[in-house]
């Protein structure tokens, strides 16, 4: 058991350490970082409910801006813990795009999508392998709290599968709720 947790815990440590100091990301054009908590429940596991709770750290930069729209490129480093039907740990690095509708000063609606590699320690028939791919699509609201800090609240539909790398590839789809803070720099 301890051996199977070494790689996920090592990757989580690397992800957290790399995203804690956002000033280094400013050199690459990133101008925002955030911390987000999430929870999700699976919709299609055969043997019961599969819940996950976790956090992700992200950096973001605008790549296209108009008067009423802004498209951001984001990179999320995620760690989560599964429980109920099976227990395990998940780590992922997910590049994503988020499109903001710049309609008012009270809140900014957004839509988003992303996909990237994921590793988990689950032993369930729906996944087959520890190495998988995580993809998501979502929507949410950003509430500016002050000049440099915002509150994000959102929903994502997410899917994990091994993309045919193993014969067992049903995958797991989930409804995910998230809440987080973002800081501009």
UniProtKB/TrEMBL annotation:
For this UniProt record, the keywords arranged alphabetically read as follows: Signal
Q: Does the keyword Phosphoprotein apply?
A: no
First and last residue of the signal peptide: 1-25
* Database matches in Gene3D superfamilies: 2.40.160.20
Q: Which domain of life is it from?
A: Bacteria
Q: Which Pfam families match?
A: PagL
Entries under InterPro entries matching the protein: Lipid-A_deacylase-rel, OMP/PagP_B-barrel
Which protein are we looking at?
A: Acyloxyacyl hydrolase
């Amino acid at each position: 058991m301890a051996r199977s947790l070494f790689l996920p815990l090592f990757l989580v440590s690397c992800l957290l350490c790399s995203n804690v100091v956002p000033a280094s990301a400013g050199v690459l054009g990133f101008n925002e970082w955030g911390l987000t908590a999430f929870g999700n429940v699976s919709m299609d596991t055969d043997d019961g409910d599969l819940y996950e709770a976790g956090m992700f750290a992200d950096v973001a930069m605008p790549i296209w801006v108009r008067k009423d729209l802004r498209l951001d490129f984001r990179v999320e480093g995620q760690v989560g813990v599964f429980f109920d039907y099976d227990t395990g740990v998940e780590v992922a690095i997910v590049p994503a795009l988020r499109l903001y509708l710049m309609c008012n000063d009270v809140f900014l609606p957004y839509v988003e999508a992303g996909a990237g590699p994921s590793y988990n320690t689950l032993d369930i028939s729906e996944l087959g392998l520890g190495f998988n791919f995580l993809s998501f699509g979502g929507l949410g609201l950003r509430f500016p709290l002050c000049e440099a800090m915002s509150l994000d609240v959102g929903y994502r539909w997410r899917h994990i599968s091994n993309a045919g790398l193993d014969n067992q590839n049903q995958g797991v789809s989930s409804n995910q709720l998230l809440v987080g803070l973002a800081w501009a720099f």
